[in-house]
Amino acid sequence: MNNKGILYLIPTTLGESAYSQVIPSFNNTILQEIDVFVVENIKTARRFIKKTAPEKVIDDLVFYEINKRTNLDMLPTFLKPIDEGKNIGVISDAGCPGVADPGADVVALAHQNNIKVVPLVGPSSILLSLMASGFNGQSFCFNGYLPKEQKDRVRKLKDLERMAIAQKQTQLFIETPYRNHHVMEDLLANCNPNTKLCVAVDITMASEQIVTKTIVEWKSTKIDLNKRPCVFLLG
Amino acid sequence: MNNKGILYLIPTTLGESAYSQVIPSFNNTILQEIDVFVVENIKTARRFIKKTAPEKVIDDLVFYEINKRTNLDMLPTFLKPIDEGKNIGVISDAGCPGVADPGADVVALAHQNNIKVVPLVGPSSILLSLMASGFNGQSFCFNGYLPKEQKDRVRKLKDLERMAIAQKQTQLFIETPYRNHHVMEDLLANCNPNTKLCVAVDITMASEQIVTKTIVEWKSTKIDLNKRPCVFLLG
User: Which of A46, A70, A81, A75 has the alpha carbon at shortest distance from A60?
Assistant: First the structure.
């Protein structure tokens, strides 16, 4: 593969947790060697680099932004430095790039151009909540965001419950944080009393709560989900 | 939750990679404070603790083994120290406990007893291969091991291909390492030439290869998968 650079996928923290708590020190070593970044948000990425690699001169770095507003025709330009032997880092707003964010497009393009892609270890709310749920980790599905309309959302929740029970396949999903309590209400009103639900909020933060109960147990449990990042799991 | 201990889920390396490369330093801090462990394999767990926390006196530690041979009626005994305020660590053979291993049972029991469960960050071949595949990370399914019989395996592969394409849902699966080449042959013989396949071997090791190509491109590509840990992804 000659002298091409490498595309590194560099995880960030989920919210306000300490870097050493969730990021291996090796990631900093890699970060030191990179001057070109493809990021979901330049401001967030600058802040992350300043905190993890304070000796880097931020003004010397090159940032390309990739998000909903990016013209995807520009992606090949972003990867140009790789041909010159430079490494590039992909950094998303929170957690692991490529999982539920636009970073996947730049990774796909790298493969089409025979560019080596190396993922670094870091926190993923999906994986951490699965580990801590006590549910089946041998078969699981992440379903992204739920439908916005309540009617559609309830239908989807019932589908997911059916799959979780019938196929013993853990079903994970998320919702915009200010709508979490709607999802919780819909779950309590529509799922079988014996179905198990894990609610995982503020993962890796001091306020982290990961709790698994049956629907009937949840009915008598108070938990504040409003505006807190949350993963729901049925298993 | 009074003075109960905490159940920590402590990831290990995948094969022979360096600890600092894939494990945050915080995990060692937690490890220092734990003297009771529920592990998939005592020998592997001892070796891991010796390497990451060399100052710990291994002979003072208590290990309970949880694997296929464990009588699950014994699990409540394993968690007893939690009632006395002691923390317990769960360590599996490789990667993240609770994902595709028997650790999930002890986590489920912890929730039933209102024990706090805290997952620590570490390497997962499932998540790392997903990040680096360039496939959809907004919707994905991990399907565990494939059927052993070729006829059943081919049927399953075709099902997974259909779901990957029709629902744009990334399908991940694994196979016993000495059978990897059978899976690869079945994929090449049965999938659509344009279907995209990511093959991720030796993740986090020096020999790591994560490559995404179409089936037709794979037909003219040589890759040695024999006895190497490998994740397959269709996307």
Answer: A46
Q: Which residue of B has its CA nearest to A112?
A: B213
The CATH-assigned architecture of domain B125-234 is 2-Layer Sandwich (3.30)
pLDDT at A93 > cutoff 70: yes
A212 CB neighbours in chain B (<8 A) are: 108, 111
Of B55, B3, B13, the C-alpha closest to B33 is: B55
Size of interface A-B (CB pairs under 8 A): 166
Q: Which of A89, A45, A93 lies closest to A68 in space, CA to CA?
A: A93
Cross-sheet strand order for the sheet of A88-91: A62-65, A36-39, A88-91, A6-9, A116-119
A122/A17 Cα distance (integer angstroms): 12
Q: How far apart are CA B38 and CA A137, in angstroms?
A: 17
Of B88, B121, B199, B213, which to mutate for an interface test with A (greatest number of A Cβ within 10 Å)? Answer: B121
Q: Using DSSP bridges, classify how beta strands A116-119 and A6-9 pair: parallel, antiparallel or unpaired.
A: parallel
- Percent of all residues in chain A with a pLDDT value above 70, rounded to a whole number: 99
Residue keyed to tokens 């394409």 = B165
Residue B58: both structure tokens together: 């291994």
Question: Would you state the pLDDT for residue A2?
Answer: 63
> Is A146's Cβ below 8 Å from some Cβ in B?
no
Q: Give the number of C-alpha atoms closer than 13 A to the C-alpha of residue B83, restricted to the C-beta side.
A: 6
| CB contact (8 A) between residue B107 and residue A208 | no
Within 69-128 of B, beta carbons closer than 8 Å to A belong to 96-101, 104-105, 107-111, 117-119, 121-124, 126-128
DSSP code of residue A178: G
**Do A6-119 and A125-234 fold alike per CATH?**
no
Q: If you classify domain B6-119 with CATH, what class do you get?
A: alpha beta
What ipTM score was computed for the predicted complex, to two decimals? 0.94
Report domain extents, chain B: 6-119, 125-234
